[in-house]
TrEMBL record:
Residues 28-231 form the YgjP-like metallopeptidase domain. GO terms for molecular function: hydrolase activity. It comes from Mycobacterium rhizamassiliense. This is Metal-dependent hydrolase. Keywords: Hydrolase. Pfam families: YgjP-like (PF01863). InterPro entries: UTP_pyrophosphatase-like, YgjP-like_metallopeptidase.
Length: 243
């Protein structure tokens, strides 16, 4: 069955729409980030779908809140054998307790944490957090430079933050792009998609037809990258409201 896709924003909520040869409209809210997807009959247009979503907003909001409040795996204790992801690759943690400066290295399929024995689990998580930030800092400049050239734009500022429900944001006034630190755990293609997505907001505020066209022209496989980004929750994280 052939499908046509639309990408809408309704009251600040991103909505994926798939038009199909079906009789009734169906709305779903999916983990891990509460993405809203609509399967709509072809006889409906974007405005009719938008109205249907608005009418179901109380239910959609409740579903998204339940997803965000759902229990995830226990907070990582930063001990030997735990799984941690780096650029989409699952690695087992090895902890080497020794005096001196704490740092992290990759050795084969292992993520090795060198740390004084006195450091607590919270302190070890902070070390890992800083290491993830550094991974992003190393690759984002070249990535942005690549797309500045391709799109003939300039990204004046960017930063990295821990965000609970968004992979990235764009402030159209300052043109600052913010990346979620969690992107260091995803495949590099996902980070590139997120960079292009946010840069596109320089040209188009919402996620309507024009935004979709811009994304299609710039990155033909953006939908598959987006789906890969949202496909599997990193459930071993203890998400907090701290930005």
């Amino acid at each position: 069955m052939s499908t046509a896709n639309a990408y809408l924003t309704v009251r600040g909520i991103d909505v994926d729409v798939i038009y199909k040869d079906i009789k009734n409209l169906h709305i779903g809210v999916y983990p891990p980030m509460g993405r809203v997807r609509v399967a709509a009959p072809r006889r409906l247009d974007d405005d009719q779908v938008r109205l249907a979503v608005i009418q179901r907003l109380p239910w959609i909001t409740r579903q998204r809140q339940q997803l965000r409040a759902a229990d995830r795996q226990s907070e990582r204790e930063m001990v030997v054998g735990e799984s941690h992801y780096v650029w989409g690759v699952r690695r087992r943690l090895k902890v080497v307790e020794r005096p001196g400066r704490a740092h992290i290295e990759i050795d084969g399929d292992r993520l090795i944490l060198y740390v004084p024995a006195s450091r607590s689990a919270a302190q070890r998580r902070k070390i890992l957090d800083g290491w993830y930030r550094e991974q992003l800092r190393q690759v984002i400049p070249d990535l942005i430079a690549k797309w500045e050239s391709k799109l003939d734009v300039r990204v004046p500022a960017w930063n990295i933050r821990r965000m609970r429900t968004k992979w990235g944001t764009c402030n159209r006034e300052t043109r600052r792009i913010t990346f979620n630190i969690e992107l260091a755990k995803k495949h590099p293609d996902c980070l590139e998609y997120m960079a292009v997505h946010e840069i596109m907001h320089y040209f188009e505020r919402g996620h309507g037809e024009r935004f979709t066209k811009l994304m299609d022209d710039a990155m033909s496989d953006w939908r598959s990258r987006r789906d890969a980004l949202n496909a599997a929750p990193l459930a071993n994280e203890a998400w907090s409201n701290k930005r």
